[in-house]
């Protein structure tokens, strides 16, 4: 996926960015690419922003622009600390060194506690001139509604969408089996359908990511929007069998599983937890 093309296709004006953007879905790598694109767009000195060639763009590309900060989970920690967020709060009001704006990228925005998010909200409510927050996470729903309402959310396509040929067929078959097991509502069927994925993290992540697209299609089938997953039959089946509210909850549970896989969670543990959650959602 070309991130820039994607934003342009979505009608995003890169020359006029909102103060806060949430980038969700996709994979970790494409989210970070997208965040850097936005940071370059803000800092670029060229005419067609981001030009990718000026000094500012190159500095953003090499993580050395003084007005672009990345706020990640510190090594050995599991969460972005409130102290880190307080630093951001202070820095947000310092005038940019080289550019027109300060950019703060949160690549692990799903690792921010409510307290940390609330600390940021104060800046978002009274933002200084020239500020861009970019929150990257698998599922925007993990952020506080107050943060979401002050941000524009961009959902990236999943990496898997570029795969073709035999790999795509294998993945499609696995998603189909998982979707059918989900409709059956049987936890045993669900687990059985994920066993072949237990030794292949990449495939499992692709399958769960595609399953999320199928779930979204299933929600959209009701609104007859265009299908994007290429699994129309499965989407129609899910849509007929499962309520919209439950489909959305299944999507959130699958997003959590994807995030766990991205953080090297053990495949069999992640998949059996997801199967249990889907079964619970369906049996309510
Ligand atoms: Zn540039």
Number of domains: 2
What is the CATH architecture annotation of the largest domain?
Answer: 3-Layer(aba) Sandwich
Largest sheet entry: 5 strands, parallel
For the secondary structure, the number of strands is 5
Write out the distinct hetero groups bound to the structure.
zinc ion
CATH superfamily of the largest domain: P-loop containing nucleotide triphosphate hydrolases
The termini sit apart by 38 Å
Rounded to an integer in angstroms, the radius of gyration calculated over CA atoms is: 20 Å
> What is the CATH class of the largest domain?
Alpha Beta
Residue share in β-strands: 5-15%
Assign the CATH topology of the largest domain: Rossmann fold
Low-pLDDT parts are: none
- Which percent bin holds the helix content? 40-55%
Structural class: alpha/beta
The global form is elongated
Secondary-structure element order, as H and E?
HEHHEHEHEHEHHHHHH
Number of helices: 12
What integer is the average pLDDT? 88
């Amino acid at each position: 996926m070309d991130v820039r093309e994607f934003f342009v296709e979505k009608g995003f004006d890169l020359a006029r960015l909102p103060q806060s953007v949430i980038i969700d879905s996709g994979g970790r790598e494409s989210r970070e690419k997208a965040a850097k694109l936005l940071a370059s767009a803000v800092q670029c000195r060229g005419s067609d922003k981001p030009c990718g060639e000026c000094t500012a763009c190159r500095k953003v590309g090499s993580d050395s622009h003084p007005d672009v900060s990345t706020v990640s989970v510190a090594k050995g920690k599991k969460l972005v600390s409130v102290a880190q967020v307080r630093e951001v709060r202070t820095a947000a009001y310092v005038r940019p060194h080289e550019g027109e704006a300060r950019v703060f990228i949160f690549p692990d925005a799903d690792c921010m506690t409510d307290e940390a998010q609330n600390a940021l909200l104060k800046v978002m409510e009274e933002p200084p001139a020239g500020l861009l927050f970019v929150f990257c996470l698998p599922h925007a729903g993990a952020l506080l509604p107050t943060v979401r309402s002050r941000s524009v959310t961009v959902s990236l396509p999943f990496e898997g969408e570029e795969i073709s040929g035999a790999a795509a067929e294998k993945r499609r078959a696995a998603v189909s089996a998982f979707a059918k097991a989900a409709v059956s509502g049987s936890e045993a069927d669900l687990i059985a359908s994920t066993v072949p994925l237990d030794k292949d993290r990449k495939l499992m992540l692709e399958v769960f990511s595609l399953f999320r697209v199928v779930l979204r299609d299933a929600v959209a089938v009701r609104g007859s929007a265009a299908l994007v997953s290429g699994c129309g039959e499965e989407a129609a089946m899910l849509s007929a069998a499962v309520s919209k509210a439950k489909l959305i909850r299944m999507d959130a549970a699958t997003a959590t599983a994807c995030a766990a896989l991205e953080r090297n969670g053990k495949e069999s543990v992640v998949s059996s937890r997801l199967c249990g959650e889907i079964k619970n959602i369906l049996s309510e």
